[in-house]
Amino acid sequence: MAAWLRRITAGRTPGKPPEPRLPVAEASRRASRERNLFEAAAAHVAASVEGDEAGIESAAARVTPEALMFGIGELARRAVVVLAQERGVPPRTVARALLGLPEG
């Protein structure tokens, strides 16, 4: 009995409930939605920079407005982190410089 219990509870952190496992199909759908979300955000931002109204509308039609804003925010966050690492400065400095704000 003790061996069976050890086998069942192996790998669990005491006091923490086990994480529910998603069925493979659900995990695949979630990954597909996230990929679509980030692809739409990237397309929207690139089209905005290029002044491509049709591209902006096409990207915005792929996901909900809330999801698109989340994706754009995540893209901005990741861009600031990469630029900060490349420049060797804090992310706050990069973010303020990109917006034309004085260092503060």
List keywords for this structure.
104 residues
Descriptive overview:
- The protein is an all-alpha fold and 104 residues long.
- The chain has one domain.
- It contains five helices and no strands.
- Helix 2 packs antiparallel against helix 3, helix 2 packs across helix 4 and helix 4 packs across helix 5.
- It is flat and about 65 Å long.
- The N and C termini lie far apart (63 Å).
Walk me through the topology.
Blueprint: H1 2-9, H2 24-50, H3 53-62, H4 65-87, H5 91-98
Average pLDDT value?
83
Distance between the termini: 63 Å
Order of helices and strands: HHHHH
Strands, count: 0
- Secondary-structure-derived class: mainly alpha
Task: Note poorly predicted spans.
Answer: none
Q: Could you say how many structural domains there are in total?
A: 1
Coarse shape: flat
| Proportion of residues in β-strands | under 5%
Cα-atom radius of gyration: 21 Å
The helix count comes to 5
Helix content: over 70%
Oligomer: single chain
| Main pleated sheet | none
Short description:
The protein is mainly α and 104 residues long. The chain contains five helices and no strands.
